[in-house]
């Protein structure tokens, strides 16, 4: 029994109102799907990072784009045996469920350290949405009979800011690639459209999460006095190094026989994710181009005055600029 409760960790947080499953109106859900991907502030001027206006509009965006879908009423389409086998075999389910579990805890742990009520509420809602992702995934694995490894209970982080930075930047990396892989799965037709539709709100929600994170980071760093700002930038650099090391480390252990089961899952997916969801061979450059395209499409509906995560898209564009002429020469 999962007893996680954001309200217990972040005093004052109230979960968004949700009607009983029978009261949910399909037209209202369709309107929410549209609302969740389009948002513009009614304020006419610039949104300067660090200002109260920037903070207020960032948090308003997060509240007003909330999608009230309920995991309990999601449709799990029946799958042909080959489709089901392909989904069950994807080496991601343990890691996905555990990642959502860690994200909800770390976001709530950092939210409760904030005094500013607007940002505290937005981050607590983000934690609540991670909890909902975990619920969606748990229902999916149950519906398709996917066996999960026993889940370790993550402890409350000793350094909530560090843990939040690690989670936030991890989401920036993982979401960028997930957007492309998800589209690849849709285009290949190897996953039924109904299943793609069921997961679509989760995917767009990750886009909102990293939009919130980029604006939290911009707001937070702009308000820090010089010395604390230096310390913060050093921490951000350390987080990127840590994440790069973690990912390179995982890639290096491919083929190693003494690998922990959870590492094995992550490794395989890093290298074979695209092949698992595509009908034909997909090159790294094509995958990168698709990720960039999808990243731009998912962010296009949000006010351009809000900050976007930029590091991973810039790195991907750079790699693409290097890879394309090389491929042409070959
Ligand atoms: Fe999530
Ligand atoms: Fe998220």
Automatic annotation (TrEMBL):
It comes from the Bacteria. InterPro entries: Ferritin-like_SF (IPR009078). This is Ferritin-like domain-containing protein. It comes from Massilia norwichensis.
């Amino acid at each position: 029994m999962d007893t996680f409760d954001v309200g217990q960790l972040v005093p004052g947080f109230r979960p968004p109102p949700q009607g009983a499953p029978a009261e949910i109106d399909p037209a209202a859900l369709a309107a929410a799907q549209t609302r969740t991907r389009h948002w513009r502030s009614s304020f006419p001027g610039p949104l300067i990072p660090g200002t109260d206006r920037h903070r207020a509009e960032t948090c308003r965006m997060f509240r007003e784009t909330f999608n009230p879908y309920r995991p309990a009423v999601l449709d799990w389409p029946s799958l042909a045996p080959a489709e089901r086998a392909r989904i069950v075999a994807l080496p991601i389910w343990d890691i996905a469920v555990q990642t959502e579990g860690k994200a909800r805890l770390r976001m709530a742990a950092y939210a409760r350290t904030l005094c500013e009520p607007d940002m505290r509420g937005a981050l607590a809602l983000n934690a609540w949405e991670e909890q909902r992702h975990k619920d969606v995934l748990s229902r999916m694995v149950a519906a398709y009979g996917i066996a999960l490894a026993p889940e370790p209970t993550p402890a409350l982080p000793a350094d909530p800011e560090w843990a939040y930075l690690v989670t936030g930047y991890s989401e920036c990396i993982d979401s960028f690639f997930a957007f492309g892989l998800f589209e690849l799965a849709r285009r290949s037709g190897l996953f039924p459209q109904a299943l793609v539709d069921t997961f679509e709100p989760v995917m767009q929600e990750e886009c909102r999460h990293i939009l919130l994170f980029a604006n939290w980071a911009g707001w937070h760093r702009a308000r820090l006095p010089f010395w604390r700002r230096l310390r913060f930038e050093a921490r951000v650099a350390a987080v990127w190094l840590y994440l790069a090391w973690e990912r390179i480390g995982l890639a290096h252990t491919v083929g190693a026989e003494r690998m922990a089961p959870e590492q094995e899952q992550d490794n395989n997916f890093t290298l074979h994710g695209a092949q698992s969801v595509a009908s034909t061979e997909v090159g790294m450059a094509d995958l990168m181009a698709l990720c960039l395209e999808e990243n731009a499409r998912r962010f296009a509906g949000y006010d351009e005055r809000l900050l976007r995560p930029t590091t991973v898209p810039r790195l991907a564009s750079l790699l693409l600029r290097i890879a394309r002429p090389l491929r042409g020469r070959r």
